[in-house]
Design a protein that fits this description.
6-stranded mixed beta sheet, 359 residues, alpha+beta, 3 domains, Ubiquitin-like (UB roll)
């Protein structure tokens, strides 16, 4: 009975506790709300300040350095990049806007920008240089190694010419497997050697390049282009190749230089041999000498790429119509990965009349 009488006394206590807790909860909720509102206000002020600072004169781009641009369109490319850069801040560099500013120039492959606080900006341009001139019905236009048409302004007379049925518009890509193969091989040529190339054509031995001296270079297909170019450089830099009418680099680890009737391989220097024989000089004076010096100076990787470790062995007193052939280091013939020696039907053997040392 006593417990039953005490129960009604607890109700007023619970009611009083609720009356005290309600204002406390309200105070706590109000404090959290005020804290959240204050935090939001601070964030808004910081965001606004950041947006203002990005566009403020305190970080405006004032000093621009542009690298990687050359050729006849260099001045126009520089002007467009400068105009776009001066509308930016070093905290708000828009690379897409820089790329869009030079979209009219197909020679520009990519644009990179590096800001330097507070007012500096370095713009690096990556170009795709022309490697040939496309000709059609008397018109001409330059083209890059990947087939992108660069426009007539870059069609220099030092570039080899390729005939096509019609000229695509600038920025478009040329079609045709044969043209694309030729462009890929030309694009792999060492820069010093490119001005010495006059033309490219498809023949019985595959892709054939004609040098401005009249020398024929048999490339075969477009496989291992860098190795074939390095092999060609090694043959031409050797004195025994003076007076050669062709160089066959279809097998870059076993190139062969062929000679016309009455001309034999010589161990004399290239310049004196060309002058005394009356033959058309080999394209091997300054560019070939410079390339050969680079190969011999730091050519560990170049030798490996070419699949040969030594230059052409000098041969004296060879028979007319013979050839000289650089031998790989150690007397073995390294095979490129996935490559096999083509048969004579496939055009893999040297042309008739060419012989190799000891063969």
């Amino acid at each position: 009975m006593a417990s039953l009488a005490a129960r009604p006394a607890r109700a007023p206590l619970r009611g009083a506790a609720r009356r005290v807790a309600a204002p406390a909860a309200s105070i706590l909720q109000g404090g959290a709300l005020r804290t959240a509102m204050l935090g939001a206000l601070v964030l808004a002020l910081l965001a606004g300040g950041w947006l203002w600072l990005r566009q403020s004169p305190l970080v405006a781009v004032e000093h621009v350095r542009i690298s990687g641009v050359q050729g006849p369109e260099a001045a126009a490319i520089d002007d467009d990049l400068l105009a776009a850069a001066h509308r930016m801040g070093t905290l708000d560099v828009n690379t897409a806007a820089l790329r869009s500013a030079v979209s009219a120039f197909p020679i520009v492959r990519a644009v990179y920008a590096t800001p330097s606080l507070p007012h500096g900006l370095h713009i690096r341009v990556v170009e795709q240089p022309p490697v040939a001139v496309l000709t059609a019905a008397g018109a001409h236009t330059a083209v890059a190694a990947d087939g992108v048409v660069l426009g007539p302004a870059l069609a220099a007379s030092t570039l080899p010419a390729l005939a096509v049925p019609s000229l695509p518009a600038p920025s478009q890509r040329v079609g045709g497997a044969g043209i694309l193969t030729s462009l890929a091989v030309l694009g792999a040529a060492p820069p010093l050697l490119q001005p010495l190339i006059s033309g490219v054509e498809q023949g019985q031995r595959g892709l054939t390049l004609t040098m401005r001296s009249g020398l024929k270079v048999y490339f075969g297909d477009a496989s291992l282009p860098h190795a074939k170019w390095l092999s060609l450089v090694r043959v031409l830099s050797d004195p025994s190749s003076a007076g050669a009418s062709y160089v066959d680099v279809r097998l870059p680890w076993r190139p062969a230089a062929g000679f016309p009737e009455g001309v034999a391989p010589s161990s004399a220097p290239v310049s004196s041999a060309a002058g005394s024989s009356g033959e058309q000089p080999n394209p091997s004076e300054s560019p070939i000498a410079a390339l050969a010096a680079g190969l011999s100076g730091g050519g560990g990787g170049a030798s490996a790429a070419a699949g040969t470790g030594s230059s052409a062995a000098s041969q004296g007193g060879g028979a007319a119509g013979s050839s000289t052939e650089p031998q790989p280091a150690g007397g073995s013939e390294p095979q490129a990965a996935g490559a096999s020696e083509p048969s004579s039907e496939a055009g893999g053997e040297p042309p008739p009349g060419a012989s190799t040392p000891g063969g």
